[in-house]
Amino acid sequence: xxxxxxxxxxxGMERWSAFIEANASWAEVIFFLCAFAESLxxxxxxxxxxxxxxxxxxxxxxxxxxxxxxxxxxxxxxxxGDAVSYWFGRVFGDRVPVVWPxxxxxxxxxxxxxxxxxxxxxxxxxxxxxxPLRPVVPITAGMMAMPHHSFQTANLLSAVIWVPLMMAPxxxxxxxxxxxxxxxxxxxxxxxxxxxxxxxxVLAPPISGVGLCID
Length: 215
Prior knowledge:
Elements: H1 3-22, H2 27-39, H3 49-62, H4 67-92, H5 106-119, H6 122-127, H7 137-143, H8 148-174, H9 179-184, E1 202-207, E2 210-214
Antiparallel strand pairs: 1-2
Helix pairs in contact: 1-3, 2-3, 2-4, 3-8, 4-7, 4-8
């Protein structure tokens, strides 16, 4: 990850952590809705889900939130988002192309259809990890009458793997591990703060008295 992308991610995480700190009792609901929207056909293209899920990872790594409640909220949201998209495609079928955003951008459905025809049932699993295809393949699978059992199997399996992978960049940042080093298994050297001091990190707004350390 280059410096510009990393800074964008960190800035977004700082804003979201402040928002969650102000609404700490609703944290799990916020994460559920985020993952649900990120996976939903109609809004997944515009929701900053990647940043918010990374923020969840950072808050878990800092001890501000427990892993399992965050993980379950995110996984349930992801599964339900895909399931709603699938059933919308299954029920409305040919009417989907005239609904926003597909009416303005028909290439989205075309791309999802090509991917589904190429990979079949595996496309639901694979698309979870491919940002541009994540919101569109489930609705395409419904339109093409993919068997419900096969769809839900791929939906569940992909969600339980996808959530920790999406949390990993936030965990890495909170632990002072560079994202590239996290992927390679090497420990990063603590970074100098953007304030120019010698401390390895600066503190984002705390939740329940626990600071989120972001370098």
